[in-house]
Amino acid sequence: MATNTVIIGAQWGDEGKGKIIDVLAAEADVVVRYQGGGNAGHTVEVGAKRFVLHHIPCGILRPRKMCVIGNGVVVDPIALVQEIRDLESRGVWSEGRLWVSDRAHVVFPYHRALDESLEGSCGRERRIGTTKRGIGPSYGDKAMRCGLRVADLLEPDFAALYGERIAEKNRILKARGAEPFDAEDLIEKAKKAATFLRPFVADTVSMLNEAVAAGRTILFEGAQGTLLDIDFGTYPFVTSSNATVGGACTGTGLAPRHIGRVVGVVKAYTTRVGEGPFPTELVDETGQALGREGNEFGATTGRPRRCGWFDAVAARYSRMVNGLDWLAVTKLDVLDSFETVRICVAYQSGTERYETMPASSRILAECRPVYEDWPGWRASTRGVARYQDLPQRARDYVERLCELTGAPLGMLSVGPGRDNTLRIGV
């Protein structure tokens, strides 16, 4: 990989970005996570070992790679400490390789409590389906200019600053009928986490720009997916950050001219978690079979994912918004046993036909998919080492996905392991 690359989820997240990032990290010098927080879960299988990462970039599983948690990420310091310790207990060393931006905002326990109380008070039609990890309230404080950043954790007056915020949030929690926090307990736990994290904290904006100036290659690690982007997703059923390509710049401090290519990751079918419209969702035995075959459970929450056929309207929209150079298609092997596979090529709502994503989630919820049917290949693709050795019908299906999306195929995953990844012209 000779250029700086952004990895984007081109669906509703959970596309298998962790595996693609892990593979491409072998060719990068630096891997930087640029948005989201502990609500993300990237799963990577290395031999017989399975790792689930939440804050830390997947590049940490590659020796000698520099890994950065950028300023666009919201960091739960207590959870991050535990994540680092868990990796070290499994032989993955972070110190000297992992850096946390001093400009990143912090997720505190009261953010989690506020998240849970707000989600719990909403009716079914207004519920977002968040992970309740405090991500939205933390980004909310950032936008309201009352958040605390990682740099604040290391300041001498942190206890006073944090104490003021705890008092403010306790008033809100009490008004919602939730239990307030013990300020002294929270402050003490935060100070312990800050002491542990101090060696990892750096001015990563300068660090990353110096790396680019020195000719080092950057891999930008996205979390969630385009259709969960705060601006371009199925609002309000979205995350609270920019999961699209623009977030790679605002979340790291690297200028757009430093981005060489953008890779979109899609499953060979579609899933989403949480609430919100999902035109190709299958609530029948076929959807359950996709979930079973694909082991579709959230890496962060363990919730079962909603499953459906491939949505080319959504993928085409993602290609447009992100300027995708090529696609990495994952989990093709999940479809091996299906007699027929379907592709959504448009939406229909009454007499209206949509070739792109409508802005209104209410309209999207009323849309029905217009399908193309393709014959299944009814043969195992697991472990196939060369693209040309795949069944012809499997290749026809993948090539149609790419044609409808408008981006060429660059990588194809036919299993969970590193070795189950085919490179096509990249």
Describe this structure in words.
The chain is 32% helix and 20% strand. By secondary structure, it is α/β, with parallel strands linked by helices. The chain has three domains: 5-101 and 201-262, Adenylosuccinate Synthetase, Chain A, domain 1; 105-197, Adenylosuccinate Synthetase, subunit A, domain 2, CATH 1.10.300.10; 266-423, Alpha-Beta Complex (Adenylosuccinate Synthetase, Chain A, domain 3), CATH 3.90.170.10. A hairpin with a 2-residue loop joins strand 3 (42-46) and strand 4 (49-53). It is globular, with a radius of gyration of 21 Å.
Topology:
Elements: E1 5-9, H1 17-25, E2 30-33, E3 42-46, E4 49-53, E5 66-69, E6 74-75, H2 77-89, E7 98-101, E8 105-106, H3 109-121, H4 135-144, H5 150-153, H6 158-175, H7 183-197, E9 201-202, H8 204-213, E10 218-221, H9 246-250, E11 261-267, E12 270-272, H10 285-294, E13 306-308, E14 310-311, H11 312-322, E15 326-330, E16 340-349, E17 352-354, H12 361-366, E18 368-375, H13 392-405, E19 409-413, E20 421-423
Parallel strand pairs: 1-10, 1-11, 2-5, 2-10, 5-7, 6-8, 7-9, 11-15, 14-16, 15-19
Antiparallel strand pairs: 3-4, 12-13, 16-17, 16-18, 19-20
Helix pairs in contact: 3-4, 3-6, 6-7
